[in-house]
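re: that complex we talked abt at group meeting.

here r the seqs, copy pasted straight from the sheet so there may be weird spacing, ignore it
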Amino acid sequence: MIKIDALSKHFGSIVAVDGISFECASGEVIGLLGPNGAGKSTTMKMITGFITPSCGRVVVDGYDMATDSLAARKRMGYLPEGAPSYSDMTPRAQLNFVAKVRELQGDVLQTRMAQVISALHLEPVLDQSIDTLSKGFKRRVALAQAILHDPGILILDEPTDGLDPNQKYEVRELIKSMSANKLILISTHLLDEVEAVCSRVLIIAEGKILRDATPAELVAESSTGRLDDVFREITGGKAA
Amino acid sequence: MSVIKAIFDREFMGYFATPVAYVFLIIFLVLAGTFTFEIGGFYERGQADLRPFFDYLPWLYLFLVPSLTMRLWAEERKSGTIEFLMTLPITPWQAVLGKFLAAWAFTALALTLSFPIWLTVNILGEPDNGAILAGYLGSLLMAGGFLAIGACLSALTRNQVIAFIITIVVCFGFLLAGLPLVLNLFSGWAPQVFVDGIAALSFMTHFASISRGVIDFRDILYFALLIGAFLYANTIVLQMKQAD
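got the structure back, here u go
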C-alpha cells in the first residue's frame, strides 16, 4: 500500500504540489485526474523517488521513501511521463537491462519476458532500434519495462497517451486484468479512461486534492450524468 | 555488483550502438599515430621508446575524452531516461560507477588498439617494455581522471555541448596547473603552500614520471583520489538535482 502524508513540492516560488495526503491499497486502481499542470506528474515523481519532496512523506509497503527508497523502488513499477526509453537500444535489450537490474533470472525471467512481450504485442519490433519505433510501440516498451518484474505497485503516468483507440482499449484491459492483486495509480486527463479502468478518482488541481470519490459517485453528483461536467465544476472550468 | 555490471554493459554497448565508438577510435588512433610519428619525431629521435606517444596523449585526451563523457548524464537528462534509470532500484553510486567504468573500459580499448605503435618500436629497436607498460598504466589512470571530471560535469546539465566545453576548460586547468605559465600567476603574491598545492594538482606533474616508466605510489594515489573525488561529486550532483 501507499501512504502519502502532507506531500508538497515547491519549485522556487511555484507550488507544484500543496500538502496532499491519501492512502491506497492493493486491489485499487486510482486515477489521478486533473488539468495539465495540476501536479499529477510531480506527485508521481515523488512517490517513485525521482524527486525529493519539499516536505511530507511517502511510505510504500511500510518503507519510507526518504530512508528506504531502494526497498520501496523494488516493489514498484513506473511508467514515467513521456514513456522514456533508451533510443539506441532494442526493446529486447532494454527489457534485458531492466531484468538484470531487478535481478530477474532463470525461468522467472523467461516466463515474465514472454508474458509482457505477448501482453503488449511487442513481438514484431523486439529487435528493432527503439528510436525507429512508432509512438505507440515506444509507450508499450516503456510499459513493458514497468510491469516486467510483476510489481505489487504500478505507477503509470498517462499510460495510454499516444496510443490509437485499439491500443488504448488493450492497455486498459491489461490494467484491469492486473488490478485484482495490485495497487495501480494512473494519472490521466482523459475522463473516459477514468470511467473505463478506475475504482477510485482523486481530482487534483493546482497541487491540491479537490475530491476523492468513485467514478460512480462523481457521475451521480452531476445533473447531466456526465463525468466531464462534474470535472469542470470541481476544477473551476479549467480545460482537461 | 550485478547492478553495476548491468549499467556497465548498457553504457559500453551504447557506444557501439551509434557511430560514436568508431568515430572516436579512428580519430584517436589516427591522431595518436600522427603525433607520435610525424609531430613527435619518432624516427628522427633514434630512440626505442614511446615518449612521443605518451607526451602528446594528455592533449589528445583533452579533446577526445570530453566527447565520451558529455553524453553520460546530459543525454539521459535531455531524453528523460534519467527518470526511468533513477527510479529503478539503483543507488547513485551504482549508476555513477557503472557509467564511469564503461567509459574507462572504452578508453582502455582505444589505448589497447594503439598497439601497432608499440609493435613498431619493438621491431625497430629494443625498448624497455616495462617502462612502456608503466606508461600505458599512467595513461589509463590519467584517462580515468579526465573521465571522472567529465562524468561529473555532464550531470550538471542537459546540454551535451555545454558539458563538452566545460569539461575541456576544467581538464585544461588540471593539465596546465603545474606549468610555470600558471604558477607564475600566483607565485608573486600567493603563499608558497598555495602555489605548491596548485602544482600538486597538475595532471602533467603526476603523469610525467609514470610516462617515463617510474611508478610512484604518490602518483597512483593522486589519480585514484582525483577519480574518487569526482565520482563522489557526481553522486552529490545527482542527489542535488533530485531535490531541485
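couple things i noticed - The radius of gyration of chain A is 18 Å. Chain A is about 35% helix and 25% strand.
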